[in-house]
Task: structure prediction
Amino acid sequence: MPNRVAFYTLGCRLNQSETASLERSFQAQGYRIVDFGASADIVVVNTCTVTERGDADTRRLVNKINRVNPKARIALIGCQAQIQKEQLAKLPNVRFVVGNARKMDLPVILRDVQSTDSDKSAQIIVPAIPRTSFTQAVAGIDRHHTRANLKIQDGCDFFCSFCEIPFARGRARSRVFDNIFTEARVLVEAGHKELVLTGINLGAYRYQQKTILDVLDKLDKIDNLERIRISSIEPTTIPFELIKRMGKTKLCRYLHIPLESGSNSVLKAMRRKYTTQEFADFITRSRRAVPGLCIGTDVMVGFPGESEKCFNETFEYLSNLPVSYFHVFSYSDRTLNKSRTYADKVPHNIIQQRSQALRNLGQQKRRIFMESLLGTRQKVLFEQKKDGLWTGLTDNYVRVKAGSQKNLRNQLLSVSLKQISGQAITGCLAPKLTGTGKKLR
Ligand code: SF4
Result:
């Protein structure tokens, strides 16, 4: 039986979380997980379609797999498989195209489907995505990272005009409440000290009467779990009660809240649910309430109809907004997004110029935030040693480097922050080591 399987994950943290669970399911079926690029019988690519680049990355990866591993059978799963199944099925050596509704069943599909070498055509398995609550049987212990992702939600009902995620991931649905903690305990038992809550629209979590606050409160009680982090969360879905838990519970002083544009007319055309004033008020209030709070955001450049005036408004707005960093994305038409039909597309060269201007501003924001931490002592969860220094993250998402002869992997230690060096701060370990060094299994 072919039993070596390799994985590659494109796109978001939710995809990473699902790949980690899938790896464990394959192991349970007797497969051996090998690194991507090593000789494998099956190569699984968990795809992304949020940008044109995500689509192109899949084709590039398929070509690479065929060069390095010409006999491997390729399974393309996830968001791009959901939306572009026919196109993906035509790529060389692709034997399985599996959408989001069935991708977690891939080991079972492979076991049940008789695919012989004489049958080179791809099996397309892309049924409609159900709207019901879900459970996840296998814990996504992540052997590559000290932090583990914990999926609690999937899908979205918002239908922003630039986004095809509601088509790729289906409508908003939540994980069965108790099932979340079954996985969380396994992850902590395996050595993970930080769990990152993941979903498409996390703040939309609803299971019976439970909300994301209930999830946080119950996670907070798990022994040996040191940190809970929220990944991206939509601005209109964050209860201020959540902010109040930061610094007082295990919830990290960190939020990533997508803004998308600093122009109200663009936000309206995007069908976002807030104004620039409402967004700024929330950020300002939160930063006042939680010292050291890191808030990052996403900005999209070149949405149809984004005039010079709209872009200048965005630049000015971001210059004054107390965010700690931001990511800049270029708009692109997608297969199913509403805005692909909008007029006044912004030329590619203008998008590039605007993106560069914003990226420069983003660098300044990040530096200002890092400077505010110099001279303080922060807890760092160390991940790996690189170029002679251990590196890890503070709870407020700043990369820190420190020297030590000891093995600091997966240790949570106090560090005095001394000096900015590129995208990180170098520091000295506080004399008394306060962490415990449980290894990841
Ligand atoms: S909130 Fe908007 S941008 Fe985010 S996933 Fe939903 S539709 Fe897409």
